[in-house]
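Hi support team,

I've been running sequence recovery on a batch of backbones for a student project. Most finish fine, but this one hangs at about 90% for roughly twenty minutes before it completes. I'm not sure whether the input is malformed or the queue is just slow. I've pasted the structure tokens below so you can try to reproduce it. Let me know if you need the job ID as well.

Thanks,
M.K.
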């Protein structure tokens, strides 16, 4: 039996079928909107798959404004998403030629400062598909993205995790995260108690 390994890939068309399969299986990187967000992404993929892939990397914040739950439109932040890709050790080295999608991690920032707008809860968010959890993939992915955040010149990043989501909290603390606060989500978003963590990059 061959061991598996995980690497982060910049989303490309060759990875898209496996990503779409995860969406159809009920997974979504959006832990608030879940199935609705997955359905929206599947519709976007069907409408224009190359445009969907292109939208996942937007370092210049050229995308359309973001519509918040209360209807307000706010400027999009620079950011990008990477996909966690699992392969067998003997798999070909070409990205996406073998293997399967197993999660997503995103990084967003505000140019010139480590602060974030009040409607943005963290710099980094990640989600692993349920059938690939407990393999250390989220911890590995976060460690990699922290290096990218450091390259952007940020002195620190913030992440959040629900108070009852102990696995996510362990991922953050394993990468140096320290709890710096907590808040309650609005009732419209589930009303959960959320912990805020900070990871120093300098």
């Amino acid at each position: 039996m061959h061991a598996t390994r995980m690497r982060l890939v910049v989303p490309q068309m060759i990875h898209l079928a496996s990503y779409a399969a995860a969406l159809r299986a009920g997974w979504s990187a959006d832990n608030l909107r879940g199935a609705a967000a997955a359905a929206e992404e599947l519709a976007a993929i069907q409408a224009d798959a190359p445009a969907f892939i292109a939208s996942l990397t937007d370092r210049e914040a050229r995308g359309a404004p973001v519509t918040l739950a209360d209807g307000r439109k706010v400027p999009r932040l620079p950011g990008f998403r990477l996909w966690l890709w699992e392969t067998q050790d003997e798999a070909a080295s070409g990205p996406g030629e073998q293997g399967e999608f197993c999660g997503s991690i995103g990084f967003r920032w505000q140019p010139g400062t480590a602060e974030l707008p009040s409607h943005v809860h963290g710099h980094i968010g990640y989600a692993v598909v349920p059938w690939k959890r407990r393999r250390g993939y989220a911890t590995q992915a976060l460690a990699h993205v922290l290096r990218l955040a450091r390259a952007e010149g940020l002195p620190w990043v913030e992440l959040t995790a629900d108070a009852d989501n102990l696995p996510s909290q362990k991922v953050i603390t394993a990468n140096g995260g320290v709890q710096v606060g907590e808040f309650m989500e609005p009732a419209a978003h589930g009303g959960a108690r959320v912990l805020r963590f900070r990871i120093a990059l300098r």
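--
Follow-up from support: It reproduced on our side and the slowdown came from queue contention, not your input. The mean pLDDT is 91. No action needed from you.
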